Amino acid sequence: MEVAELLQQMIRNGCVNDGTEASGHERRSADILRQVLEGPGLDLEVHEPSPGRASIVARLDGRREDAPSLVLLGHTDVVPANAADWQHDPFGGELIDGEVWGRGAVDMLNLTASMAVAVRHLADDGFRPDGDLVFIGVADEEALGTYGAGWLTEHLADDVRADYLVTEAGGFPLAGANGMRLPVLTGEKGVFWCTLTVRGTPGHASQPLRTDNALVKAAEVVRRLAEHEPRADIHEAWRGFVEGLGLPEELADPLLDPDRISAFCAELPALGLARQAHACTHTTIAPTIMHGGTKLNVIPDRVQLELDIRSLPGWGRTEVEKMLADALGDLMSDVELEWHSTEEATTSKSDTPLWHALERVARQSYPDAQCVPFLTVGATDARFFRRMGTVAYGFGLFSERLTFEQYATMFHGIDERVDVASLGLSAQLWDGLARQSLG
Ligand SMILES: [Zn+2]
How far is the CA of 182 from the centre of ligand 1 (A)? Predict the structure, then answer.
């Protein structure tokens, strides 16, 4: 089976992950991947920690025990899509004008399909890599990885541990003044999710004077959080990205200056770039959900406020709690803090054999290309592997048919699609990468 056809089938499987254990149904795509991968040279294993939540591991044994191993990691689940908003059926997997349409076309069934096909072709060729080459198609990336990469790295660490790993999402061609730049995701921010409970005293709402109203207090908590801005930190991945792009000085200088970047982002007309630049250089706080009050005529005694905090590398729970205390000031003593997630940022160095191998192989498609590091503000399954010591990057290859802005809006957005040429470039990338020495 070729990449486009496999991608179409995986889109039609509709492995929609809504965050509940009963969703996902990745078994459907694990079964198709098993059909594609089955055959001489590959050892296959399917793991299903919860009904339907299947992941597949395919291993091509290396020739040398001591040579570094490489994992190609793709997820098989997708986020929901509302068909009414799309030009074409999000789960139709239609091939229209050289593009495959559907949920997951760029996030990241395109890469998962191209990885599986490339690994099968390598095995068919009788190719033996130096170190083990492992393809893993995982469930549950779009929630927390509980039934996918999280489960595998916890329960089968010895089977899936690797020296090097590539997964989503990078490699979107960026035309710069000095030639093409291909971002490699070398790290991702930490995820600190919490509930702040703001306490008050109940009373009759017909006499509000000098009452201790939790909602009024919570409004002030939200205001302080929204206004608070920790100092910018120019992380090496952000520096490498901005410097690598070869931006004009009037843009590059403020983007690399911790004293100027906040004001610069506040004024920058390009809103997408401003948000990205701000998020890549700050630990951010976004209040997202508030629940409070019990009855229209009762002064509320309790409000729950949920926060999505994304931390820069180097921030732990202590630093995040100190930031909240700084933001809230005297109100800190009126809130209770409950953590749901305290996952610190993870990063891999950029000057590694994998980095250079990716750049060499990418240049077979884009001769003037240069890789630049990038810190993603979202989360990928790479984090589980970085914590085990793996050098893990997000990368892929794409044609120049769609712009970076188009790709960016398609992730979890509408009219997600990928051109067939991009699928071919990715398949060549994995094939070429497997043939590189990482030792
Ligand atoms: Zn993804």
Answer: 18
